[in-house]
Amino acid sequence: MTREIDITDHVFGNLTAIRRTHDTGNKWEFLCSCGTRVIIAKGSVTSGNTKSCGCLRSALMRQTRTKHGEAQKTKEYEAWQSMKARCTRPKNKRYPLYGGRGITVCSAWFNSFEKFLEDMGRAPSKEHSLDRIDVNGNYELSNCRWATKEEQSNNKTNNRVLEYLGQTKTVTQWAGSTGISASMLRDRLFKLNWSVEKSLNTPRRGAA
Is 62 domain-assigned? Predict the structure, then answer.
């Protein structure tokens, strides 16, 4: 007859064996590190299948719910999701100005919200949103910031993207291809409220 091994005081994960019970099934009473006493089949504990009274699983579930639940409700998580959508989903209404122009999200951010949050930190206020410093650049740490609407407006005014005859370029790029200075184009567009067509096709004074 095989002699049963006494596991009294042996530690298995978060469980310490106290005594064998008189119940059938070779069950033992264990003290969990959380302070709970629980009766579990010896084999389940010694095999490693059970490592606590259940508190470890509960803690993990709480952590998972907190992590993802909190993330999905924050400005930062929404900014991360929106950033990826406008760069990768052709059906997104803003895709033509982002993914359609070749704007991408760096792989570190695309694959991990945690990395995005680590690099960018929390938005300073509710008034701040994700902004690219260079509107022709990609979404990456060196080219992104949290900015207010006013800051973003100034950035967009200087680098506004214009679409004309199937081509999408910034004001600076259009200036280079038309021979009209960027400052003149901005004046026409934003001070005189000229149409894009008129702004791009009206020759400069004195131009041949």
Answer: no
